[in-house]
Amino acid sequence: MSEYGLPYRGVTPATFTILRCHPLFSVTQRPVGLRQWLIYIAKGIAQSCRLMVGVQDYPTYVRHMQLHHPQQPPMTEKEFHRYCLNARFPSEAGKLGKCPC
C-alpha cells in the first residue's frame, strides 16, 4: 500500500511493444485554395452518390489491394463491376439477394 492507503499507486505500468502500425485512414493533404476545396467536395459527393446507387469505387479497391494484399493481382475493372453486380443481384437459382426483381 502507498502512503495514502491506495493499493494501486505503487503499481508500475505494463510495457507494450508496437509490432506493426497501420493508419486507420489514408492521410491526404488538406485543400488550400477555394478551387481545391470545391474539387475535394465534388469528388466526395460523386463517390457518395455512386455508393448510394450501388456502384462500387474501383480505384479505392485497387488501392486497398495494393496496401493489404500486394501478393494478389487486383481484378480488372470489368471483373470488379461484374463481381459487385453478382454480389448485389445474384443470378443463381434459389439464392436470394437484396433485390429479387
From TrEMBL:
Pfam family, one: Sel_put
Protein name (record): Putative selenoprotein
Species annotation: Rouxiella aceris
